Amino acid sequence: MEAPDLAAAIDDAAAALVGVLESAASRHQLTVSPTQLRVLSLVSSRPQLNVNGLAELLDVVPSSASRLCDRLEAIGLLRRVVDPRDRREVRLVPTSAAQELLGELTARRHRAVQSVLDRMPPHAQRELLTALAAFAQAASGDQARDTPGWPA
């Protein structure tokens, strides 16, 4: 009997998860593109981010990042704010409308994933949680010695 291809199974599960998440987003009429959502998410999680830092995270030239910010600013989802400690620095700040949009999207995604989880037996949900925690630790380079079943 051949051993299961764990990497292929994870790839399949990741594709299924992406499909669930994208479906949750597409069922709601979003006024922004996936790239703009990514920008808002990055800006929301990094309060000191400027256009050059955003360009680096997106792996684009600063002028492209600036145009993305221009569009988001024009629709009221992003502001450029001068850093009071260094007036040469301009920080990117999501507006309350952007925070609301990201919150709604996160809630929709969580509901969509929960719907799938509800179709799994409780023991499979617990095993999935343990496996995902071990995977996250391994991916971050941490030693996962406290994870049950981790090799000695």
Automatic annotation (TrEMBL):
Name of the protein in question: DNA-binding transcriptional regulator, MarR family
GO biological process, alphabetically ordered: response to stress
Organism: Micromonospora nigra
Keywords: DNA-binding, Transcription, Transcription regulation
Listed Pfam families: MarR
One example GO MF annotation: DNA binding
Gene3D superfamilies: Winged helix-like DNA-binding domain superfamily/Winged helix DNA-binding domain (1.10.10.10)
PROSITE patterns per the UniProt record, alphabetical: HTH_MARR_1, HTH_MARR_2
The keyword Transcription is assigned to this record: yes
Chain ranges of the HTH marR-type domain: 3-138
